[in-house]
Amino acid sequence: MSPEIWKWRDDKWFVGIDKMGPLKKIHRLKQYIMDHYSFNLDLETWGLTDKQTEISRFETFIDPETLQQSNALFGYEGDKYYFDIDIRKHFGLDKFDSDIIPYWKTETVEAMNAFRFKPGHPSAAGECVSLACLYAAALFIVAKIPLEKIFLLGTPLHSQNFILVDEGVLTNNRRIMTKAMWFNGTELSGLARRALENEQVTMVAHSTGYIHTIYQEATIAEEAYTLLRHKLSAYLEIPVNFEIFTNFLRSVSHYQKLFQLSFQCLHQIKYIRLEKAFAYEHDSKNKIGDKTINKLFCEIDEEDLSVNIDKERAVIAADNFIFSQKTNQDFFALFRQEFPALAANREFMEDLRKFVHTIPKLPSSNKHFSPSSPVTLSVNLTRDEIINVLSGLRNHSTTVDLAFYAGRQMDSCDWKPFLKAAFERNPVSVDYFREMEMDRVYSVLSSWPDESIYEGNGLAMPDEVVNYQRGEGIEKAITFINIAKSRHLDIIREQQDKKIILKIEHRKYEFPVTKNLVVPNGIV
Asked: Cys-Cys with 203: which of 154, 221, 294, 391 at CB 3.0–4.6 Å?
């Protein structure tokens, strides 16, 4: 519903996109996001809280042990991988007390775009959930991928999307992963693989509903979830050929020392240690494993070649018959015969199997499927038409109703949730002005541009006002109240035509109002 992504349709980058195939559209969209958005996981952006405060918020809804298993910040360690890297150190939390955790809010697209106003941020930005939601919306609005083909996947540490296009496309922060990319063995692909390789998928969301590991009731259409499981499983498995095998060795480089590569050089077989061969890739556009391998051989210095076999290493070649098997079952059976010593290396074999066949830890299908009201929208609808359709669904769909709250559409929402969040979960604005007297706070707020990052009657939260140093009168007034409340000051508020007046300790502060909104009496 946000007008921000709809503006992308008018960008010259997307001229002619409707004539492209679905996969090419997605690549086009990916490049736009790469050019305009950065990944941001700055702990200071949205402030810090602590485990006990957050556990107390949830205690009437979910027990702490279950919460720990579904969220990285409440003690989750995940697979051995995450235990080994020390998850708190990985996120920069090691400098804080062990109970301190960040807010890491999911930014709206307006908040993502407004990062360009924040010092040190030359472009728009967002964290993984924000980028996943941005992709999902842009796939529909700009690439015109039907909602039915888009699945949002959430793990305790990451969020991404799986799109039913071609063999499957996975979004990962700003980038995308086709099936070929998933298995190419590069460092970037290795980073993108971590979540599905090591974590439980906590939730899957779809236009028909959701399924969650914690809850027995699932509102997603059962046939849609079955389709996802089938397509994702196929995406995560590939037969082993020479290219895939060498991609594995590129990915897990410490195994390269177990192999040597053989190839025909004029009328003689020559050999090179595999790690030496891979070193030549760094300064070449040619690669081991693909059709450019012979060109790479021509770039190898003679001194790195040998006419003798290193008996301590297994010999592999592009034309080895074991790499022509149609199934992985046949490949591994022949591999054990051809390389018995390697087959006895359990760690090597397990890593190879995991590389060519990741088994995703999806929520169990053993749920009570209770269909909700699906969000059915045509890609040919305009933004106004979509808002009208969704407005008509609000009374029948909690998900749709909450979307208006998430979009800060305060002319059609109850103000209480917005103000509860504004006054309880916006610590950055409080900390920013901590050393200032209220007169000085007012002076600074008034000096910032009187412009909202939200069009129409959308409202920014206090921390958004402070992070981006701008805001409309109502937004600045709510930010001012948030600071006063943190100091336990008594506040009297009145809203006149085109302005809000706040009285604190016999002082009067005025904020000009341009949005067509009135903060209800009795709430502030």
From this structure: 154
- What is the spatial distance between Cα 262 and Cα 274, in angstroms, rounded to a whole number? 9
Residue-wise burial string across 65-100, b where 16 or more C-beta atoms lie within 10 A, e elsewhere: eebbbbbbbbbbebeeebeeeebbeebebeeeeeee
**Strand 268-273, strand 217-218: pairing:** unpaired
Residue 227 Rama label (left phi>0; alpha psi -120 to 50; beta): alpha
Is 90 exceeded by the pLDDT of residue 265?
no
**Rounded to whole angstroms, how far apart are CA atoms 108 and 472?**
17
Looking at residue 87, its pLDDT comes to 61
Q: What is the spatial distance between Cα 348 and Cα 23, in angstroms, rounded to a whole number?
A: 34
Alpha-carbon distance of 136 to 209, in angstroms, equals 15
Nearest alpha-carbon partner for 107 in 406, 398, 403: 406
Phi-psi sector, 183: left (phi>0), alpha (psi -120 to 50), beta: alpha
Residue 362 identity: L
Is residue 479 exposed (0-12), middle (13-18) or buried (19+ Cβ within 10 Å)? buried
Structure tokens at 428: 């950055």
Q: Would you state the structure tokens that stand for residue 186, as one six-digit string? A: 């590069």
> In degrees rounded to 5, what are phi and psi of residue 342?
-65, -40
Task: Name residues whose C-beta falls within 8 Å of residue 479's C-beta, 6 or more positions apart in sequence.
Answer: 429, 445, 462, 465, 466, 471
Host H or E run for residue 502: strand 499-504
- Spell out the domains of the chain, with CATH numbers in brackets: 3-41+106-237+360-369 (3.10.620), 48-102 (no CATH), 242-356 (no CATH), 413-512 (no CATH)
Lowest mean pLDDT among 47-56, 155-164, 256-265, 391-400: 47-56
Q: How many CB atoms lie within 10 A of CB 316?
A: 21
Q: Which residue has the tokens 């279950």?
A: 66
pLDDT-derived band at 91, boundaries 50, 70, 90:
low
Report the amino acid identity of residue 284. S
Element (H, E) at 39: strand 37-39
Question: What is the C-alpha to C-alpha distance for residues 119 and 113, in angstroms, rounded to an integer?
Answer: 13
Alpha carbons 414 and 402: distance in angstroms, whole number: 11
pLDDT number for residue 524: 62
φ/ψ (deg, to 5) at 206: -150, 165
**Residue 126, beta-bridge partner list:** 39
